[in-house]
UniProtKB/TrEMBL annotation:
GO molecular function: FMN binding; oxidoreductase activity
Domain of life (superkingdom): Eukaryota
InterPro entries: Aldolase_TIM, Alpha-hydoxy_acid_DH_FMN, FMN-dep_DH, FMN_HAD, FMN_hydac_DH_AS
Protein name per UniProt: FMN hydroxy acid dehydrogenase domain-containing protein
Domain FMN hydroxy acid dehydrogenase positions: 1-347
Binding residues annotated for FMN, in chain numbering: S118, Q140, T169, S238, D274, G275, G276, V277, R278, G297, R298
Record-listed glyoxylate binding positions: Y27, Y143, R178, K216, H240, R243
Keywords: Flavoprotein, FMN, Oxidoreductase, Signal
Family according to the record: Belongs to the FMN-dependent alpha-hydroxy acid dehydrogenase family.
Cofactor(s) needed: FMN
Catalytic residues of the enzyme: H240 (proton acceptor)
Length: 350
């Protein structure tokens, strides 16, 4: 297929499925167990409906959002980006394209969005950072290493290349039970073992680096509260794209739960979210609960099958959808989004 045939993010999944060897596609697509969390991530957005407002002046929004050189719309840990969505950390981009993560970091630079590099990226951290545009901000995802010495070495490298923040993934004590991937030999449990990320460890890690450490993989309001109490600068609601624990909740459900039980958290610290986001409207729903920025994993890995131009096209398509959807919602300023713009159709909490 041609890149110009790709008109929405799902098209890239379709293209990748038809183009990539089955093993490569499966590595990206796989999820845990019966893949209920994976499906729920996608489908849960339909349980939340917009309440569009008419007679609103949205001309400012229309003229700014799809442009590359737009004024910054989002700040993440104090860094400005063009839109409130970003490229989530995902490993092994070489399964999609020979230039691996180059397409991700370069497209993020062109479009002024955040890219968070996975610790298990194909390109080394030096190689990825060498591809930055002037002033481009990258975050670095982090997994606990078997020893603190290895953690220290990783942290030193992250600081040396100039990454601006660390996303410590806390939902991966073990590699998930990804049944689809087992058929292709993807099971690295024995290599990784089981490792907890406790609050003691978090504090130790904070003392080993000057960079802010975000917690990625929060799935309940209790941990969100505890994170605030422990001085965490930001939490990242995620069930790892449904790849870790089957039937773990979607970020949208967790955001809703936090909103009902501890809404102050959205003001106390920054909250990010990912999982199943495929449309501009999905992003707007997460923002409505107070989420600051929304990540996407698979869509950009599939778009990267076309290299940097593919990833850039995916970003542009999504920017365009956010812009159009906000306009039709009657929302001139994304920062004005709140829960008065959505209603729950069906939820475990009402
Ligand atoms: C991931 N994800 C992930 N997360 C992380 O913290 N470290 C990692 O190395 C990876 N690797 C990874 C590989 C692949 C192929 C995928 C699809 C995902 C999870 C990722 O950051 C994100 O949470 C999900 O991808 C979000 O769900 P969607 O957008 O893929 O539905």
């Amino acid at each position: 297929p041609n890149l110009t045939d790709m008109v929405c993010l799902h098209d890239f999944d379709w293209a990748a499925q038809n183009y990539l060897p089955a093993l490569n596609y499966t590595y990206y697509r796989q999820a845990a167990g019966g893949e209920g969390s994976y499906r729920n991530n996608l489908e849960v957005f339909a349980n939340y409906r917009f309440i569009p407002r008419q007679m609103q002046d949205v001309t400012t929004l229309n003229s700014t959002l799809p442009c590359v050189t737009m004024a910054a719309l989002t700040s993440i840990l104090g860094y400005n980006f063009s839109v409130p969505f970003f490229i989530a950390p995902a490993s092994r981009a070489a399964y999609g394209h020979p230039k691996a993560e180059a397409g991700l970091v370069e497209a993020a630079g062109r479009e002024g969005i955040l890219y968070a590099r996975s610790q298990f990226a194909t390109l080394s951290i030096e190689e990825v950072h060498a591809l930055k545009m002037p002033g481009q901000v990258l975050f670095q995802q982090f997994y606990r290493a078997p020893t603190l010495e290895e953690d220290q070495a990783n942290l030193d490298e992250i600081a040396k290349v100039g990454a601006q923040a660390i996303m410590l993934t806390v939902d991966t004590q073990s590699y998930g039970s990804r049944i689809r991937g087992l058929r292709y030999g993807f099971d690295i449990t024995e290599n990784r073992g089981y490792r907890n990320t406790t609050w003691d460890y978090y504090k130790t890690l904070c003392n080993m680096t000057k960079l802010p450490i975000v917690l990625k993989g929060i799935t309940n309001v209790y941990e969100a509260r505890t994170a605030v109490a422990n001085g965490v600068p930001a939490i990242y609601l995620s069930n790892h794209g449904g790849r870790q624990l089957e039937t773990s909740p979607s970020a949208l459900e967790v955001a809703h739960e936090i909103y009902l039980q501890a809404p102050e958290i959205f003001r106390q610290i920054e909250v990010y979210a990912d999982g199943g986001v495929r449309y501009g409207s999905d992003i707007l729903k997460l923002l409505a609960f107070g989420v600051r920025a929304v990540g996407l994993g698979r869509p950009f890995m599939f778009a990267n099958v076309f290299g940097v131009d593919g990833v850039q096209r995916a970003i542009k398509l999504l920017k365009n959808e956010v812009s159009r959807d906000a306009a039709n919602l009657g929302l001139a300023d994304l920062k004005a989004l709140n829960t008065s713009w959505i209603q729950t159709v069906q939820s475990a909490w009402v």
